[in-house]
Design a protein that fits this description.
The protein is an all-alpha fold and 104 residues long. Helices cover 74% and strands 0% of the residues. The protein is built from 3 helices and no strands.
Length: 104
């Protein structure tokens, strides 16, 4: 499952590169195709897993696997990007950067 976050990061980076290429008037077919292919493969893999879970359990919630896992993967990428940004800038890391404080 941790590979999903890495694959999502690669896909999003490829799509960002494609957008940059388009803005600069350069060819964007390769990064656009790579990013799109990775996202489709991730969605298909989670769709099959969700369908299998739905068939085994009889609960249609498994059909939401691609959406839930896609959101989770994007959240992981965002968290990793923030962590890398803090690390690269040399700012001190505190527990509050990764968790909310309980109010009670």
């Amino acid at each position: 499952m941790i590979l999903h976050a890495a694959a999502t990061a690669l896909a999003l980076a490829s799509l960002a590169l494609a957008a940059l290429c388009l803005a600069l008037g350069a060819g964007a077919a390769l990064p656009l195709g790579l990013g799109s292919l990775i996202l489709v493969l991730l969605a298909l893999e989670r769709s099959f897993a969700g369908l299998r879970a739905t068939v085994r359990s009889g609960d249609p919630a498994g059909l939401l696997f691609p959406v839930a896992h896609g959101l989770r993967d994007v959240a992981w990428v965002a968290a990793l990007a923030l962590w890398l940004g803090r690390r690269a800038s040399g700012r001190a890391r505190r527990p509050g950067h990764s968790m909310l404080r309980a109010n009670g």
